[in-house]
Amino acid sequence: MATTAHATGTLPDSSRFPRQAFVDGAFVDAAAGATFACVSPVSGETLFDVAACDADDVDLAVAAARRSFESGAWSRLAPRERRRVLLRLAELIKRDRDELALMITLDMGKPIGDAKGEVSGAVACLRYFAEAVDKVYGEVGPTGPSAVTMVTREPIGVVGLVVPWNYPILMPTWKLAPALATGNSVVLKPAEQSPIVALALAALAAEAGIPPGVLNVLPGFGETAGQALGRHMDVDKVAFTGSSEVGKLFLVYAGQSNMKGVQLECGGKSPNVIFADVPDIDLAVAESAEGIFGNSGQVCSAGSRLLVQESIADEILEKLAAEAVKWLPGDPLDPATRMGSMVDQEQMERVLRYIDAGTGEGAELRLGGTRARAESGGFYVEPTIFGGARNDMRIAQEEIFGPVVTAIPFASEADGVRIANDTVYGLTSAVWTRDINKAHRFARSIRAGTVCVNCYDRGDNSLPFGGFKQSGIGRDKSLHALENYTQLKTTYINVLDD
Ligand code: NDP
Q: Which atom of ligand 1 is nearest to the CA of 266?
């Protein structure tokens, strides 16, 4: 287990990392000259100051995006040309993978191995949408011989993207890739906790040949820059990933401005349901641990509610506690580390408050529950297991976004399904059973965007990802994501008789 602490001032050199906004093809300071401190949760050190953009910068970036869109330099390129440029961008990201991964790790505390994996995921996502876009056809309507009717997909125009910090390159790419592939111009606001890699991405996009104004990146705060994008009268669509609370605000912003379309990928409290006839108990335990401790539990699809059939509940929790030892927090810069820090001090304190709430409500704290590696100056929380919880407890209903699993025993299949669905969220879910009929019954009954059977949180670029209920509106990934960034046009051509 990696236990090296970083004394202040010993992080790798970050002086070459970008820190200005990227607008109309160039790095620039915020219009007001404001900055904010970029703090590394690895050690609590400030790396440097980053441009703090606000509404004036949003105006400038949206104007640049609009100009580029109207110019047709990207929006009217043949799809195969956009494909070529986006594949080049994927190659450049691959070329710089180690540097981009270091930016992610220093910025938000994810283990370096996971950060490299995330960068590779962004490469794969870009390739998927680049390859798809010149293979998608429109439709010819069945309107009879007196007309030729076509249904075509057109880019929406200027798209605002507001993304979180838990996957600083993958979350923007899930949205950027289909938005750019379909010819839109984009203004991206990364989370204040993790702006660096998004700025590096903008520079690589320019190097790949994406014209000025097509991709603008504005570091800044949600309440200023994020809100200004959401309310902008010349932004045609906003796609957001983050909390359900802020997702709802984007619906308000749209309603109070220009009725822009809103795509939302929000929170979760996903049920991971293990029946007594689980086919491979060790696999179930290993995937359950990864599903809640991976990325320090800062994952919208984390398996944060572990529903275990009563007869095997103790066995599962004992095995899970033994497995959790592999997830003790370590130095994020050590390639052997599996769990790094929380994104910042605020998130660490929020998670610790939830742990206190769980104990206060009478759940049994079976493992962890405290801050770790405090001597490093960074913000780490131990893998934490609550047993014997009830589904009406706060730790079973609210998104904690930390390495905290709430285990809830259940009796029958009907109980398991009822408890699994007893949440305002509906992002993902899993069921572990060797009974194929039970698996199908569960898959049909669960109100969630994804159901995994005998695995946890699997996905693929070819499969849609998104939520039912308050987990969101619309889907990222797969060809369905192209629908987020295009609109249908009907062309009706009257065929006149001679
Ligand atoms: P937020 O939902 O607040 O942040 C996501 C993005 O929205 C960030 O870019 C943020 O900017 C922006 N934003 C924040 N407030 C506004 C606003 N009023 N108007 C427009 N944009 C805004 O998540 P937090 O980072 O605050 O995390 C809080 C909780 O949200 C977590 O504990 C977790 O439960 C949940 N969350 C869920 C995620 C998911 O993937 N589903 C991802 C991240 C968080 P800024 O960075 O400046 O705040």
A: 41
As a whole number, mean pLDDT of residues 454-477 equals 98
Q: Is 81 a catalytic residue?
A: no
d(CA 340, CA 83): 36
- Which residue in 118, 265, 287, 399 is the catalytic one? 265
- Would you state the pLDDT for residue 10? 83
Q: How are strands ordered across the β-sheet holding 185-189?
A: 26-28, 21-23, 215-217, 185-189, 158-162, 237-241, 261-265, 472-473
Sheet holding 147-155, edge to edge: 139-140, 147-155, 486-494
- Residues with CB under 6 Å of ligand 1 are 162-166, 189, 191-192, 221-223, 226-227, 230, 241-243, 246, 249, 266-267, 300, 399, 401
- Phi, psi of 73, rounded to the nearest 5 degrees: -60, -30
| Mutation to probe ligand 1, out of 118, 196, 197, 246 (largest number of atoms < 8 A from CB) | 246
Q: Whose CA is nearest to atom 14 of ligand 1?
A: 222
pTM for this prediction: 0.97
CA dist 494 and 441 (Å) reads: 50
Q: With contact defined as beta carbons under 8 Å apart, do 120 and 97 qualify? A: yes
| Rounded distance between C-alpha atoms, residue 285 and residue 291, angstroms | 10
Report the amino acid identity of residue 353: R
Q: Ligand 1: which atom is nearest the Cα of residue 229?
A: 20
CA distance linking residue 168 with residue 118, whole number of Å? 9
Angle at 151 (CA atoms; ends 260, 141), nearest 5 degrees: 145
Which listed residue (300, 382, 413, 452) is catalytic? 300
Tokens of 339: 């769990």
**pLDDT at residue 341 tops 50:** yes
Direct distance between the N- and C-terminal alpha carbons of the chain, in angstroms, rounded to an integer = 83
Note the pLDDT tens digit of each residue in 89-132.
999 999 999 999 999 999 999 999 999 999 999 999 999 999 99
Best CA proximity match to 219, nearest among 12, 13, 49, 43: 49
- Cα 2 → chain centroid: 27
CA distance 113 to 98: 10
Measured CA angle at 329 (ends 323, 333), to 5 deg: 125
In DSSP terms, 387 is beta-bridged to 364
Which residue's CA is the closest to the ligand 1 atom numbered 42?
242
Q: Is residue 469 a contact partner of residue 244, using CB atoms and an 8 Å limit?
A: no
The Cα 54–Cα 91 span in angstroms is 32
